[in-house]
Design a protein that fits this description.
This protein has 8 helices and 17 strands. The protein is α+β, with helices and mostly antiparallel strands. It binds adenosine-5'-diphosphate (ADP) and magnesium ion. The site of magnesium ion has 4 residues, from loops. InterPro entries: Kinase-like_dom_sf (IPR011009), Prot_kinase_dom (IPR000719), Protein_kinase_ATP_BS (IPR017441), Ser/Thr_kinase_AS (IPR008271).
Amino acid sequence: MRSNPRPVVETSQVTISKDRKGHKIINQYTIIKKIGEGAYATVKLCKARDDFYAMKVFKKDMLMRRRDFSNSADGRMVVTNALTDVYKEIDLMKELNHPNVIRMYEIIDDVEGEKIYMILDYCERGSLMDWNSNEHRFITPWTNKEISESQLKSIFRQLVLAVRYLHINHIIHRDIKPQNVLLTSKNHVKLADFGQASKFEGENDNIRKTQGTYHFLAPESITDIEHCSGRAADIWAVGVTLYIAVFNILPFSGSSISEIMNSIENDDLIIPNIRPISADLRNLILHVLDKNPRTRVTIEGLLVDPWLNSEGQPLMSLI
Ligand SMILES: Nc1ncnc2c1ncn2[C@@H]1O[C@H](COP(=O)(O)OP(=O)(O)O)[C@@H](O)[C@H]1O
Ligand SMILES: [Mg+2]
């Protein structure tokens, strides 16, 4: 992997204070407001001098209480806690250097402190989409209009470049979904949340363990996790994300985990009549959501896909 020309600042001292308006200040960062909440972390908007950043804050004691059981390559049971996973996330993020992947500027971790602070690129528009439980559909928090096909194309071209960058660098993301695809004010895409990501050695990207969000799991990771390619599973998740961005609904769903899994495994993919789409977009959706990982489009196939290449420079010239 290309080494990061602007290395991540690692700070082991935390000073917390308040400004005159009562805003909390953590080292040089003034906290402005909360912008997101995930399973393990809170994300805040903060400002240092004239620049805005996103600060992802982890609580160490809560992470340590969350245990995770998995199998190592030689079949041994490994017990980790979520704090170990956060340090894995941090190590992975330190290496990342791509315009469409969220960048970490600084990591603040006082050994004695209760929290870990990750300083990231701030994406003004937030997530590409969020689940709205009242409306029972995905919505675009950053616009009240439908995302046009041309906008969708620009977003997914950038997402494909991000995923290709990860895959050629032997990283699988394992949690690609609309909530983790972030947009800046200029509609630049930054893939975020490396909490589930992992590195693989050589060509063996078998994932062995079901991870990520149920609705985005690839069919083969439900039926045959032992022989499942992490890269193909990431492509499937890009497909689910694309489907949601086009139609605002999930391609496969259910009211319990087993129903969701059953739908992913057995239901036919339906292209709804919610909005008219071009034949090329329709073909792309069918190719990414191919249930057979062997015939599913690969990242190299996406780089030459007709729909993704019908506007802008050829993707191949951008890698
Ligand atoms: N850099 C960022 N800029 C803007 N919003 C962000 C940023 N990072 C995260 N968020 C928001 O916070 C949410 C949770 O962050 P994420 O990193 O996905 O945490 P988790 O690992 O807990 O899911 C995201 O879905 C997004 O809406
Ligand atoms: Mg997330």
